[in-house]
Each structure stands twice: as structure tokens, then as C-alpha cells.
Amino acid sequence: MGFSAVGALRGNRVAIIVLAERELSREEIDFFKEKMEEKFDGLKLRMGIGRRYPDPKGVSHSYREALEALEKGRSLWKLGDNRFL
Q1: By the 8 A CB rule, do 23 and 52 touch?
Q2: Which of 28, 29, 41, 50 makes an SS bond possible with 65, Cβ 3.0 to 4.6 Å?
Q3: pLDDT tens digits, residue range 19-77?
Q4: CB atoms < 10 A from the CB of 25, how many?
Q5: Cα dist. 10→7, 13, 15, 16, 26 in Å?
Q6: Are 3 and 23 in contact (CB under 8 A)?
Q7: Is-above-0.85 flag for pTM?
Q8: What is the predicted pLDDT for the residue at 65?
Q9: What CA–CA distance (Å, rounded) separates 52 from 69?
């Protein structure tokens, strides 16, 4: 699939930064989500996705966008912390 990932734990959140050469398709994102749920023993995940930036300095922007997506999803759908958006 042509991407790699690194993760970090911060409080009760796990941030996974996916390093990809191109935008990932919805199918690739779903595949990644399924693999992470398998790895974390069936835990249902919520995912916020930020844009891909060509420069490594854009990682912080993408991370903030992902957090904003999570917050918007939570307020729109009133989901708990264990749902996937």
C-alpha cells in the first residue's frame, strides 16, 4: 500500500501519523482502520483525518485539522469516544 506510520500516546489519545507519498483512498483508510482495530483487540476507533502536506512542517497543521474533524464529528453526531467517523 505504499505508506508507513508512527504513533504516540498523549493522555487517552493515540496519535498515528501516516506518512504517504499521495492522498490515501477511502478504501485504504478503511483498511488501515481495520488493521488498527485488529491490533488493538477489536477496539472501535474514531479517526480524524488532516490534509497531506508536502513539507514535514505541515504535520502539525494536519494534526490540528484531524483534531478539529474529531470535535466536529463528536458535536454533529454526538458520538462517544469509541466510535469511528
Answers
A1: yes
A2: 50
A3: 777 888 889 888 888 888 888 786 767 788 888 888 888 888 988 998 898 888 877 76
A4: 10
A5: 10, 5, 7, 11, 26
A6: no
A7: no
A8: 92
A9: 14
Give the containing element (helix H, strand E) for 63.
Answer: helix 59-77
Q: What is the DSSP string of 11-46?
A: TTEEEEEEEESSPPPHHHHHHHHHHHHHHTTT----
| Distance of alpha carbon 48 from alpha carbon 44, whole angstroms | 13
What is the DSSP secondary structure assignment for residue 5, as one 8-state letter? E
Four-residue CA torsion sign, 70, 74, 77, 80: positive
**Residue 23 CB contacts under 8 Å (≥ 6 apart), including other chains:** 52
- CA–CA separation, 31 and 53 (whole Å): 22
Amino acid at residue number 47: M
Which cell numbers hold the place of 72?
466536529
